[in-house]
Structures are given as structure tokens and as C-alpha cells.
Specification:
globular, 3% helix, 5-stranded mixed beta sheet, mainly beta
Length: 601
């Protein structure tokens, strides 16, 4: 997650790791319900599962989060701000989620202003599967398996989801459904005890029914529109690890194709887009003498955009970094520098440093500073609204924390103070009634580096064991955001869709703890509280606070092929039918009941 092969205790950067065990414990196809368990995370969504889903970390824009799937950068070059839509990523094929909170362009380069979220897809031995059915005629099925020998390993995982859904428009009545099929593969061949060749890939295609803004009112309401999305990504390369030297070289690619249809105007798509990236990178770690080590890397990336309104445009960025570190006893520290060269705006330099020190058994003081930058998106540069003179967005973040163990332990706790200042933020500038200057030749508006912002606050999390059978988790985040754009009408306002307070809690009772698990139930509850926010930069459209409660249970009813259980599970989402919105005008799911089974052998 930090971009280096390191244990979480040896980094001063705040990292959250969510494992497959926790994903299965939460249940269901909604990744947002899982990510909300991490401190500092808030989410906005246009409707139900499959609808556009933006993940904001510590008050950063959703597009300022770098997203990787099996090490491949999957941010969409064809989206307006170059972000990743989490509505197209379901958890059925996910093995682990790592979330780094804070700017870290030193290792990762562009896009890592808010943080980095890395997904590892499933690659377990044997065969595992699950299926569930529930509210809104929803069906979800997943299957994962592998073939392995002494010198090679191949795993495949597939998932299918379909739901009639509910109206994405809160004012509507027509359900908006979603259907997706996804397939992932991971393989490796061992050339020797220290060297292997690897390959990874993902394919997903889905169809989402959406609501729009039809004539003559141009307000969000029921429409027959739908969107088809196809994503595919992959990587292959060589890895060498002989102890003192770790080295990896890889080629990777990612593509997102979208087509929007409105049957009111015929069968042809009204809008199509194709965003593509190719990347070559080399990275490594060399342990010099004793506790001293050096991390290094270099990469080249080519991204392209093409729509039915914009001819193919592309850009190239080159980068390299070096980071020195020490890991000695209870002390770990790293300091690094990166230089990037962008085909359009030129150079960008990023600095980062972190330290972690064990002040008592299992108790560490952690601190980090990091710089981030985000290159202008291809849409912002080359579309009809584009501005080829844009500079990169930049940020500097600081955090200081105290941690007792980590969330993999039966009991853990942590508190982190943070601040991030961002400059040269890119915003849309209206040219209505304006002639000349930046509006020359752009009567409908353009993009410019006009904004500044600050986000600061505190994150707290804890896990605790009440008894052998009862365990709880809790997180709380206070995130204070401010628009600091000098002279702007929005100066001093809170940033849009940034609630100040967010908290989550879960309680799990396992009647089989320490005993034979067959026919002994597990029961859990999850609570999520989010305070009010504003949907717009002028702070005139409020979003009300809300509390959502989920209940879940599972029961092992049989043993398959030895000690592999057949598990029946069920849950009730939004038990009290909370009526709330995370984006103004867009509904969220009401109460829903789901049940299914999970097996492995």
C-alpha cells in the first residue's frame, strides 16, 4: 500500500487493511457498506448499487483518490476529472482492500492527493462460492477457484449480480436496475526459488438504468435512459526477491468504455467514451547494511481519451523516485523524493517522509508528511471545455497519530490528527456573458486552476473483545473542510458533500468461539452515522444527517470435504428504513432482506 514491501507497523503513514474474512462478515454486493468501516471515508452515490459512487478520503475530491486493482491503475482517463467510479466494482471477487489515507505522490505519482486504495482480487486455494437472493429481486453469485502445482499457480474468480433496483431519482417511481458480470484471473510461474513471472487480469461489463434531467423542466426525474460500461485491465511482469534485493518490472493497461442511451431519441448511443492507459514500471528495494534500505522506481504512462464529440487525444508522463529508510528495533523511518515530467505542463516534484516509533509494547507514535499532485484530466485539457494551459493540482498533508496494535488484532486502538492543504485546484469556469480572456472561443465555459482548499480533523478507531464470543469495532472521523479560494463567492464555505462527522460501529457475537462451529449461529449488527452536509459549493442545498442500521446472521449447517463449512447467511439492510440522500435528489435503498449460502472445498 505504501508502494514498498513493508509491514504496517513499520510505516508512519495511516493504512487500513480490510481482509476477505471481514468482507464476508459484512455480506452482500455493496462495496460502500465495507469501505464505510474505514476511518476518514465518506461516500456519495447516485441511487442504488451500480450507480455512480464517489469515495472521498479525508475530505478530498473523489477524483483525487488513486485506485489500483492488482497493482494496475484503473482511474478512468475519459471521465471529466479522471476519477474511478466505485459503482462498477463489487466485492465478490475481492480478497483484500488496502487504504492509505493522505497524500503520497512520492511513490505513486499523479492522483494520490487524498490517498491510495489498492484492491487485491481473490486467489485462494480450492474452490469457494456463494449465492444470495433478496429485496428488489436482487440476485448475486460468486465463484472462485485455483489450479496449482510445484512451479505454477492459476486462479479464477467470477461474479454475477442483477437487481431491479429502485428509482435513482428520489422523486421518481420507476425502478432503475443494474446488471454486471465480472471475471478476474491471477497466475504465476516460478522460474527459480527467487524469481517468478506473473500475470493478472480483470474484465467487467454492466448495464445500469439511470434517471436524467428531461425537457422541459430539466429536473431529476424518471427517464428510460441507461448506460453500458465495459472495463478491462491487466498486467504481466517479472519479480525477483533474493532477500537483500527485491525487484519488479511490469507492463500494465486499463480501459473503460461507456455508452449512454436514451430510447426517447432512438437506438444509437447519445454519448460514448473510451479511456485507455498503458504503463511500464520498475520498482525495487535494496537492503544495504543492517537496518538501512533504499526503495526506488521509475515509470512511464500513456493515457488516451476518445468520445463521439472529442477526437482521440493522448498524453505521456514519466517519473522516478528514490526513498531511503531505516528499520531498527522499534524505530522505522523513510524519506523520499520523486520527479515527474508531463508532456503538457512539464515537471512536478514530490516529497514524502514518515516515522514510526514503538514507545511501549504494541504502542507506536506515528507521523508523516506527504506531497501530492494530480495532472489535469484529458477531458479538462482537450474537450470542448478544455484548457491546454492547466497546471497540476497540488497538496501537502501532515498527520500525527498514536496506535495500539492494528485492526487485525483482537484489541486495537488508534487516533490520528491530520491536515491537508490543496492548491491550484481545477474548477469549471462559466463564460456566460463573458467575452475575451480565458473565455475566448469557449462561450459555454472552460476549466482553470482557481481554487484552494483545506481539510483537517481527527480520526479514531478501536476494536475490542468483550468476551470470548463478543467483539466490537468502532470508528469516528471529524473532517473540517474549507474553501480557501481568495476572492471567490464560496470563500470560507464548507466543501460540497463533505460531512463533518462520520461514525461507524459493529458488534459481533459468535456462539461457536472456541467450540465446534456446526449449528452455532453468528449474529452481527452495523451502525453508520453521518452528519449533515451541503450538496453545492455555495452551501445552499443541504443534505440531512442520517443513521443506518444493518443486522446480519450466519449459521454453519454442514461440513463439506473435511472441515470446509456450508454456511447459510441472512441480513436486513437499513432496518429502520431511514430515508436519506448522499447526493441531492438521488434516493438511497430502503429496508431490504437478503439470504444466501456460502461454501468451500
Amino acid at each position: 500500500m505504501t508502494g514498498t514491501p513493508i509491514e504496517t507497523e513499520d510505516t508512519g503513514q495511516p493504512v487500513t487493511i480490510i481482509t476477505r474474512e471481514e468482507i464476508e462478515q459484512v455480506q452482500g454486493p455493496d462495496l460502500a457498506r465495507i469501505l464505510r468501516r474505514a476511518p476518514g471515508v465518506t461516500i456519495s452515490r447516485n441511487g442504488g448499487v451500480g450507480g455512480f459512487t464517489g469515495v472521498r478520503v479525508r475530505g478530498a475530491e473523489a477524483e483525487q483518490l488513486l485506485v489500483l486493482i492488482d497493482g494496475v491503475r484503473v482511474n478512468d482517463p475519459s471521465s471529466p476529472a479522471g476519477g474511478f467510479d466505485f459503482g462498477n466494482l463489487l466485492p465478490g471477487n475481492i480478497d483484500q482492500i488496502d487504504l492509505l489515507r493522505g497524500s503520497n505522490s512520492t511513490v505513486w505519482g499523479s492522483d494520490a492527493i487524498g490517498g491510495v486504495l489498492a484492491v487485491k482480487t481473490r486467489s485462494e486455494s480450492g474452490i469457494e462460492g456463494s449465492a444470495e437472493y433478496g429485496a428488489r429481486d436482487s440476485f448475486n453469485a460468486n465463484l472462485a477457484g485455483s489450479i496449482e502445482g510445484e512451479d505454477a499457480f492459476l486462479s479464477l474468480a467470477g461474479g454475477y449480480y442483477t437487481s431491479d433496483g429502485f428509482s435513482a431519482a428520489a422523486s421518481g417511481t420507476e425502478p432503475d436496475g443494474f446488471e454486471q458480470f465480472a471475471l478476474t484471473a491471477r497466475g504465476r510461474v516460478f522460474l527459480s526459488a527467487t524469481t517468478e513471472v506473473f500475470a493478472r487480469g480483470r474484465y467487467a461489463e454492466g448495464e445500469l438504468e439511470i434517471d436524467g434531467f428531461p425537457f422541459p423542466t430539466f429536473t431529476l426525474s424518471d427517464t428510460p435512459e441507461f448506460q453500458e460500461t465495459t472495463q478491462y485491465s491487466g498486467a504481466f511482469g517479472l519479480l525477483h526477491d533474493n532477500g537483500p534485493l527485491y525487484l519488479q518490472a511490469a507492463y500494465s493497461f486499463a480501459e473503460t468504455e461507456r455508452a449512454n442511451f436514451d430510447p426517447t431519441f432512438g437506438t444509437a448511443p447519445g454519448f460514448t467514451s473510451d479511456g485507455h492507459s498503458d504503463r511500464i514500471d520498475v520498482k525495487g528495494e535494496y537492503r544495504l547494511i543492517g537496518p538501512l534500505l533504499v526503495n526506488f522506481g521509475a515509470d512511464a504512462e500513456w493515457t488516451s481519451l476518445e468520445t463521439n464529440f472529442t477526437p482521440r487525444q493522448d498524453v505521456r508522463i514519466l517519473g522516478g523516485y528514490v526513498q531511503a529508510g531505516i528499520e531498527f528495533g522499534g524505530l522505522s523511518g523513510h524519506i523520499g523524493l520523486r520527479q515527474d515530467d508531463h508532456q503538457r505542463f512539464g515537471g512536478a516534484t514530490s516529497f514524502g517522509a514518515d516515522v514510526s516509533y514503538e514507545v511501549a509494547p504494541d504502542v507506536r507514535v506515528k507521523a508523516s508528511v506527504g506531497e501530492g499532485f494530480k495532472a489535469p484530466s484529458l477531458f479538462q485539457l482537450f474537450s470542448d471545455f478544455g484548457n491546454e494551459l492547466l497546471r497540476p493540482e497540488t497538496s501537502t498533508s501532515f498527520d500525527l497519530g498514536l496506535a495500539f496494535r492494528d485492526r487485525s488484532a483482537p484489541a486495537y486502538a488508534g487516533i490520528t490528527l491530520f491536515r491537508r492543504d490543496s492548491e491550484d485546484l481545477i474548477q469549471f469556469v462559466s463564460c456566460f456573458g463573458v467575452v475575451g480572456g480565458i473565455c475566448t472561443g469557449r462561450p459555454f465555459g472552460t476549466y482553470d486552476n482557481v481554487a484552494r482548499a483545506r481539510a483537517q480533523g481527527v480520526e479514531m478507531e478501536a476494536g475490542f473483545t468483550i468476551s470470548d464470543a463478543l467483539r466490537g469495532r468502532a470508528t469516528y472521523s471529524f473532517i473540517d473542510t474549507e474553501d480557501r479560494s481568495a476572492g471567490a463567492l464560496t470563500q470560507g464555505n464548507r466543501l460540497a458533500r463533505r460531512p463533518r462527522n462520520a461514525a461507524s460501529a459493529s458488534l459481533d457475537w459468535d456462539s461457536a468461539r472456541g467450540l465446534e462451529s456446526l449449528l452455532r449461529p453468528k449474529i452481527g449488527a452495523d451502525l453508520r452515522y453521518v452528519s449533515g452536509a451541503f450538496d453545492d459549493a455555495f452551501n445552499t442545498v443541504p443534505l440531512e444527517s442520517y443513521v443506518v442500521v444493518d443486522l446480519r446472521a450466519e449459521l454453519s449447517v454442514a461440513q463439506l470435504n473435511g472441515d470446509h463449512p456450508l454456511v447459510l447467511f441472512a441480513r436486513v439492510e437499513n432496518v429502520f428504513a431511514e430515508d436519506y440522500q448522499t447526493a441531492a435528489g438521488y434516493a438511497q435503498a430502503g429496508r431490504g432482506v437478503f439470504a444466501g449460502a456460502r461454501f468451500s472445498f
